[in-house]
Amino acid sequence: MADTPKRRGRYAVGVARRAQIIETAARHFARYGYGRSSIGRVAREVGISEAGLLHHFASKEELLLAVLEQIEAADRAALAAADLPTTGLACLDLLPWVVDHNVDRPGVVRLFVLLSAEATGEDHPARAWFAARYQRLVAETAAGLRAGIASGEIRADVDCAGLARELAAVSDGLQTQWLLAGCAFDLAASYRGYVARVRDQIATPTSGMVAANGSAAAVATVG
After folding, report:
1. Can you tell me the distance from the alpha carbon of 201 to that of 26, in angstroms, rounded to the nearest whole number?
2. Do the Cβ atoms of 191 and 170 come closer than 8 Å?
3. Count helices and strands in the chain by DSSP H and E runs
4. Under 8 Å CB-to-CB from 146, ≥6 apart: which residues?
5. 47: phi then psi, degrees, rounded to nearest 5
6. How far does Cα 53 stand from its chain's mean position?
7. How far is 10 from 3, CA to CA, in rounded Å?
8. Rg of the Cα trace of the chain?
9. Cα 126 to chain center, whole Å?
10. What gap in Å lies between CA 155 and CA 204, rounded to an integer?
11. ∠ at Cα 98 (112, 181), nearest 5°?
């Protein structure tokens, strides 16, 4: 069937409506969590019927996963655009960059803090999503750290997977404390200070010379 201006118009309206639903649902999930959020309440705020919302998303679970996937995709696109090094000591700057990025959007931080805690329940619909996200984050960070061992920047005795989990855990914990404190302390500076201490602990004595000679990625400080 030929594509007509009328069909293109309907498609554009549908895309815009879907984006509006996801944006509204994200606010509801951040405020109420998954269990207390309501498809009907989201639909009313968007200005459509519950049946109209279910035309775009077949269930609350599908809507939740769409919200998480969209935020994750946008974050990865922003990180790719920043073009930060991903190996060696420089990979330690990736998580501080994410924390810096999050400071201006406490709603997104609240969404992830609340839902990741809820997702520890075995029957939570986002449990597998969050488990896979942490597994991927740890694997990517650990790979960057192992590259630093290979280049001579990072000590050979560093437990790369263990440190990757710790980096993520401190980031998450500080963000939780930041929300509970009403965003009253400098979250980005706190995390950058922690990462700087980790860098000093895991760097080899010659890591500065290695980076200066170009045989490993130069260390970049974000912020």
Report:
1. 39
2. yes
3. 10, 0
4. 160
5. 95, 25
6. 26
7. 11
8. 21
9. 14
10. 5
11. 55
Torsion angle of C-alpha atoms 160, 166, 172, 175, degrees rounded to 10: -110
Q: Using alpha carbons, list the distances in angstroms from residue 131 to 24, 59, 119, 202.
A: 25, 21, 9, 27
b/e for 162-179, b at 16 or more Cβ within 10 A?
A: ebbbebbebbbebbbebe
Q: What is the pLDDT of residues 194-222, one digit of tens each?
A: 999 999 999 999 775 444 444 333 333 22
Spell out where the chain has E strands: none
Single-letter code of the amino acid located at 122: E
| 8 Å CB contact between 46 and 53 | yes
Q: Which residue type is seen at 38?
A: S
Q: Tell me the one-letter amino acid at 197.
A: R
Contact yes or no for 79/98 (Cβ under 8 A)? yes
Burial class (CB in 10 A: 0-12, 13-18, 19+), 223: exposed
Residue entry with tokens 């459509």? 48
Sign of the CA dihedral with 164 first, then 72, 43, and 30 last: positive
Predicted confidence band of residue 3 (pLDDT cuts 50, 70, 90) = low
pLDDT digits (tens, 9 = 90+) for 92-117: 999 899 999 999 999 999 999 999 99
User: Could you tell me the two tokens for 40?
Assistant: 């009907």
